Amino acid sequence: MAKRQMPTLKRTLEIHAPPTEVWRVLTNPELIREWAAAYQDGISIRTSWRQGEPVTWKAPDGTTQAQGAIAAIEPGRLLKIDYDADARAAFPDTFEIVAKEDRTWLNVSADQLDEDDLKAAEEALLEIKSLAEESAQIRGAR
Fold first, then answer.
1. Closest C-alpha to 133, from 11, 16, 12, 13
2. Are 84 and 77 in contact (CB under 8 A)?
3. How many CB atoms lie within 10 A of CB 60?
4. Between 51 and 87, the higher pLDDT residue
5. Which of these, 5, 18, 4, lies nearest to 135 by C-alpha position?
6. Selecting from 3.30.390.10, 3.30.70.120, 3.30.530.20, 3.30.70.2120, what CATH number does the domain 9-41+73-140 have?
7. What is the C-alpha separation between 15 and 26, in angstroms, rounded?
8. What is the largest CA-CA distance in the chain?
9. Coil, strand or helix: which one is 123?
10. What is the per-residue pLDDT across 25-40, written as a single tens digit (0 to 9) for each?
């Protein structure tokens, strides 16, 4: 029997916010909690945001939901997390921020998603875009 291929997410979002705001949404624990709620309410991330350091997603009850390590990090430009998998090979999530003219593009790829995670990832990306744009408006209004 052939092994079933898990869906891969590859998206590019145009975000009307500076790259610094997009980066902040991707790495600020409070903002992460907002967009990661698409996966599970109350989920949080624990990491030092340094290459090679562990990444752990925790449910509100303290159980570990996913874990891995920072595979690559370039503040304001690139975040790649390699996750451990129980019975599968490790799989990455990659966020690349590209500034072009007066726009910011977020290129995202994630592997080994089941259908529920794929749907949650799509919702999370829309929330990332919304949070970055709202934050840019608020900070720009000062």
1. 16
2. no
3. 10
4. 51
5. 18
6. 3.30.530.20
7. 13
8. 60
9. helix
10. 999 999 999 999 999 9
Query: Chain-centre distance of CA 4, in angstroms?
Result: 25
Tokens read off for 102: 């007066």
CB within 8 A of 102, min separation 6: which ones? Answer: none
Query: What are the boundaries of each domain within the chain?
Result: 9-41+73-140
Query: What's 37's DSSP letter?
Result: T
Token pair listed for 80: 């790649």
From residue 53, alpha-carbon distances to 81, 98, 123 in Å are 10, 24, 27
Q: If you search the block for the tokens 């009307």, which residue do you land on? A: 16
Question: Of 111, 116, 131, 109, which Cα lies nearest the Cα of 33?
Answer: 131
pLDDT digits (tens, 9 = 90+) for 13-66: 999 999 999 999 999 999 999 999 999 999 999 999 999 999 999 999 999 988
Q: Please give the helix or strand (H or E) that residue 55 lies within, else none.
A: strand 54-58
